[in-house]
Amino acid sequence: MQIRLSMLLTLGLLSGLTPFAIDLYLPSLPAIARDLDSTIEIAQLSVTLYLGVFALAQLVLGPASDVLGRRATIGSGLLLFALGALICALAPTMEVLLAGRAVQGLGGAAIAVTVPALVRDLFERDRYAQTMSLVMLTTAMAPLVAPSVGGLILVWVGWHGIFMALLILALLAGGLFLILVPETLGIEQRHAPELGRVLRNYRTILRDRSGLGYLLAGAFSFGGMMSYIVASAFVYIDLHGVEEVWFGVYFGANVAVAMLVTMQNARLVLRFGAERLLRMGLGVQMIAALLLLGLGLWGVPPLWAIIGATLLYLSMAGVVLGNAMAGFMASFARMAGTASAFSGASRFGLGAVMGSLISLFHTGTAAPLLFGMAFCGLAAGLSYWLLCCSAPNPLGVRSGRAQDDPAPSSDR
């Protein structure tokens, strides 16, 4: 079966809503804090609040899409996402804006957790992997352009316009979705949620030493990236006087380099193996973490040093996340759906925790960003070496099997 280009782009737009929701308004965080008579650390919490809701909701909304169907779950998510954007655009206080971000995060989770399931309904094995790669390629463009576009909107119409842009984007995605994407899960294929089996599957994951190593390596690496996302606007704009539009350029440069390195990872993985590339990526991130730790101890490092050290760390984001996910999923080949949901919730949950800590320990300096990224880089490497390297047969020999999963796809 061939997927239409229009449907492929629609799925990519749906998957890109959460990256846009996070990255588009990053340049406006200082302005939001000033206009709503709040502080930068509270404004930064609006990022981590979105991520926290987004992470936890996936554990519930994934099974819900198997009960309600794909269109109902995505459609409900789009409505919540649009409603949250409208609340944020009209927010008179920081409390209202935070409530809007929570609603937006719930809607984003419903969309993000269902799109892969929808594609899985249509395709098997290699075609599924190929289609999801194309969808994610479209999604990867969002962090590249969003901060720059957000900076331009901020200069032209103010931060309220950024959330109106997210509302328009959600309405556009919703219209295309209703027209172009059919229901892929028939009524006869739906079933009631089985809480007992889901809990037993999660227990299986938590008991697997090597699987946890891959999971924590990817999650801590992602936590370092979220530390950068949450704190970089303050460090660049408020602390070093970078203009909002130029902040988007600096931010986009990190994403561009990470994309180029990730493309090389995809080309080299069949030659060198995911395990070796994961070790390389973690090694580079640990070197970057030590540099960041040194800059934090320095006290007042120059901007160029911060940019260089963070770029070195973030350049390995795709290498570590992709190959760690490969190792984790290979550990649970017989319960891939449950493992995927647990991985997403863990990754974004830890990202939300790190972002919250960065905000709570705001000192008016670059120290929270530097120490936060340093901690995550070191923790990612140590998690892998302590848990994975001491376990036999890494990456794919074992296949963790849930009690109620007699076939590879039966955990849906």
Automatic annotation (TrEMBL):
Record's subcellular location: Cell inner membrane; Cell membrane
Every Major facilitator superfamily (MFS) profile domain range: 4-391
InterPro entries per the UniProt record, alphabetical: Efflux_drug-R_Bcr/CmlA (IPR004812), MFS (IPR011701), MFS_dom (IPR020846), MFS_trans_sf (IPR036259), Sugar_transporter_CS (IPR005829)
Keyword Transmembrane among record annotations: yes
Domain of life: Bacteria
GO molecular function, one term: xenobiotic transmembrane transporter activity
Keywords: Cell inner membrane, Cell membrane, Membrane, Transmembrane, Transmembrane helix, Transport
Main location, first listed in the record: membrane
Cellular component, GO, one term: plasma membrane
Gene Ontology biological process terms from the UniProt entry: xenobiotic detoxification by transmembrane export across the plasma membrane
Topology of the protein relative to the lipid bilayer: Multi-pass membrane protein
One Pfam family linked to the record: MFS_1
PROSITE patterns in the cross-refs: MFS, SUGAR_TRANSPORT_1
SUPFAM superfamilies: MFS general substrate transporter
TM region(s), chain numbering: 43-61, 73-92, 98-119, 131-156, 162-181, 212-237, 249-270, 277-298, 304-333, 345-363, 369-388
NCBIfam families referenced in this protein's UniProt entry, alphabetically: efflux_Bcr_CflA (TIGR00710), PRK11102.1 (NF008314)
Stated family: Belongs to the major facilitator superfamily. Bcr/CmlA family.
Name this protein carries in UniProt: Bcr/CflA family efflux transporter
